[in-house]
Amino acid sequence: MHGASGLPVEELHGALARGVAKVNVNAELRRAYLEAVRVTLPSALPGSDAVSLWAAGRDAVRDAALEVIGRLSPRAEGTNT
Hints:
Elements: H1 9-17, H2 26-44, H3 50-72
Helix pairs in contact: 2-3
């Protein structure tokens, strides 16, 4: 399913129930990465600490992906998570 970012979780569960096997959520991951970079960049700049910047971005994308996976999990159906 292309363009699933921002769709209500109920609609995504309906699509999954009807056989959709792939859901693209790039916007959520990109927003999480950019927000982590925005927050981390000021402290990374003085020492040119690129590693902490990359780590913050990676961790943010991981957390966002896990959140989306949790919302799409069959156990999440019927909940507001």
